[in-house]
Amino acid sequence: MDSQTPTALVLGGTNPHISLIAALKARGWRVVLVDYLAHPPAAPHADLHVIASTLDPDAVRRVARDQGAQLVIATCVDQANVTAIKVSEDLGLPHPYSFATASQIANKGSMKARLAEARLPTARHVYIEDAHGPDLESRIAHLKFPLVVKPADSNGSAGVRRADDMTALRAHLALALGISRVGQAVVEEFVTGDELSIDCFVEQGRARIVLVRRKFQMTGVPSDKVIQSTGSIAPWPLGDAHAHVEDVLSDLAAAFGLNNVPMLVQAFLTENGLSLIEFSARLSGGTGAAVTQMISGFDAIGASLDSWLGIPVKVDLAPTGIWLMTNTVYARPGIFSHVSGVDALLAEGTITRMLPYKTPGMEIGDDMSTRSRVGAFLVTGPDAATVFARTRTAIGALEVHDQEGRAIMRKDIFGQLRAQP
To answer: What is the pLDDT of residues 352-407, one digit of tens each?
Structure first.
């Protein structure tokens, strides 16, 4: 190894980190990937793959020292991001904000407490540690049903449920507390409005909106079983609310002392304005960063790398005019065989890409969350109407088959899309 070549540790071998590795190499870095899996997607792109847990700061610290790392980074994975910040702080390496801030953001309870303390718009909530405590009713007396229950520190939608009464609340709390690593859950009032996923970047203290996705909620599934999205469309216009939303996001960044960093914000746009759900000071995972660049022209991966290195980022957008919709394919329980209709839809241009999540022989679970997902398909077009129409065509043509030959795709969950133009 050339002694003049700096080494970067990338935590997590996810697909988005392939682009991060490419960006690092283009800037002259040697890249060591840390991931506990033997064959993560990003491994072939790194100079070295070390099998270790990205959730173990001690293990990552040892690898960083052994490899002489001058950068430890994660851009798209919540818990790996916290580890990267922790190790960087311990070793005096560059990082965009403190470990204390990273920990506060990663815990939904402490995050919500800070939102309330800063008087930012968010649903009224309480922090609960005991599902069957005698004071539960008094703790939530100021909240109005329906309520949403979520583990304080889970990833994605795991353990998120709606409760319409005390019986359901206690049951969902028990589930959420069992999932939470810290044994804590957030109970908050249910908010209605357009659910948005907002990618922004904090430039000189101002949160600049890069891309807004409108999410669509699953229908046909009891909300006490799961609160889940079937997908999202972007770019979703905010119209007259754009300045208001940027104002709220700028206040959010200030409340957590964030600057020159990306933020991924989940929120509802209600008739009274923006209501914050939660956020992360990182990029979105999955196809998020790639889609952001495809639509907005903003290099989110490059900007995030600059953020870690302390290089000021200027948000220059170059919208391409492309509209894109991501749709998740769910199925009923069974042993997965295949998805039919994909090749024809790709050939005629109805869908742009199919992303498989399962291979033949894998079990499809009954949770209507991660274990029930078979894959996702992307649809592009010159406007929203075209994208919605192509999505509806694709839903009608696709089918999931199990090994017994049954058609098991959950097409009923896309009800929200029928109301779109």
So the answer is: 999 888 889 999 988 777 788 899 999 999 999 999 999 999 999 999 999 999 99
SS3 95: coil
Judging by beta carbons within 10 Å of its beta carbon (0-12, 13-18, 19+), is residue 82 exposed, middle or buried? Answer: buried
Q: 186 is written with which tokens?
A: 């957030």
Give residue 307's pLDDT.
98
What stretches in the chain show pLDDT beneath 70? Answer: 1-3, 154-158, 221-227, 419
Residues 6 or more apart in contact with residue 181 via CB below 8 angstroms = 153
Pull the structure tokens for residue 56: 């173990």
Contact 25, 41 (CB under 8 A): no
**Three-class SS state of 121:** coil
- Which residue in 192, 200, 194, 242 sits closest to 215, CA to CA? 194
Sheet holding 353-356, edge to edge: 273-280, 262-270, 194-203, 206-217, 229-234, 323-330, 373-381, 353-356
* Sign, CA torsion 331/76/255/85: positive
Q: Which are the contacts of 286, defined by CB distance < 8 A and separation ≥ 6?
A: 15, 16
* Long-range contacts formed by 314-321: CB under 8 A, 24+ apart: 314/203, 315/201, 315/203, 315/208, 315/210, 317/210, 319/235, 319/295, 320/294, 320/295, 320/296, 321/382
Q: Are 38 and 13 spatial neighbours (Cβ–Cβ below 8 Å)?
A: no
Query: How many Å apart are CA 400 and CA 122, to the nearest integer?
Result: 39
Q: Under 8 Å CB-to-CB from 36, ≥6 apart: which residues?
A: 51, 52, 53, 54
Give which of 362, 352, 412, 421 is closest to 388, Cα–Cα.
421
Question: What single string gives the DSSP state of each residue in 225-278?
Answer: T---EEEEEESPP-GGGHHHHHHHHHHHHHHTT--S-EEEEEEEEETTEEEEEE
Question: Cα separation of 19 and 285, whole Å?
Answer: 12
- CA dist., res. 36 & res. 362, Å (int): 21
- Per-residue confidence (pLDDT) for residue 175, from 0 to 100: 86
Alpha helices in 143-259 (DSSP H): 166-179, 242-255
Distance CA 282, CA 101 (A): 13
Q: Residue 89: which residues within 8 A CB-CB, separation 6 or more?
A: 95, 98, 99
Reduced to 3 states (helix: H, G, I; strand: E, B; else coil), residue 80 is helix
Of residues 297, 378, 290, 353, the one with CA closest to residue 22: 290
Whether the Cβ atoms of residue 49 and residue 33 lie closer than 8 Å to each other: yes
What 8-state DSSP symbol labels residue 362? P
